[in-house]
Amino acid sequence: MSSFAPVTGLPKEPGALPDQNPSLNAVPNSARPSEPSSHHPARMHLPTVPEAMASLLRTVVVALFLLTFILQPFLIPSESMERTLLVGDFLLVNKQIFAPAGQPRSLERFILPYRDVQRGDIVVFHHPSPPLLIKRVVGLPGDRIRIENGRVEVNGLPLDEPYAAFEPGALRTFGDNFPARVYTDPNINPDWWRELQTLTRNGELVVPDGMYFMLGDNRNHSEDSRFWGLVPRQAIIARPLVIYFSLKRPSATDVQQAADDRLGHDSELSARLAGLARWKRIFHVVH
Length: 287
Description:
The protein is an alpha+beta fold.
């Protein structure tokens, strides 16, 4: 007599032959393969040391690639671009946007495509001293530039400059009326002064091919193309993208607040943090 219980009650498919020996189809419960339970939670995979090191290495490689070929951090040290850029602003600049158009297409060129320098651009460029400067492009090749009482004219028309600031400073007749006929400011580069005479037509500076006329937004606190000359195209290397941090640092144009006798709480952490940085400027896009 068989020790296995026959399987009964299973429906038959139409046309199926009856089982010749039903006892052969019986399978003991203990012999059936166990099915995985759906109630067990999935196990979390913790990375091994080699996997963690590989992930960290990939992050470092991507960061180095971005900083080497595309982005670069800069710190604003002076007030010449206030109030667009403040002393203590940390910038990320795009080093690919003004790269020569003839370069072969690559990944960074698709992410940040090339375009030419435009009037109104804030640009970073090489300069003899200091080696890197940041100013705004006002004059393009072929433009006729004149400044009268601080008002910039390009090709005979007043330039709309909502970004320009005229914070109090020393009287600079040469900078407010340009180009001038008289050498009046000791800050003017003598070589530029002689070259300026050859580029002036009917009281206007004619910007030569391949050159650009730069001004700082804070006109009374900026030494720029008025004082040291034009910038060649190959010297322009980058354009600011975003302010990623901004430290509160003193500026020569800051208005000093009068002290009072009220008790303060400077020792509190919140007060210290509020005084450390300009938090609202973080991730501010530069225009």
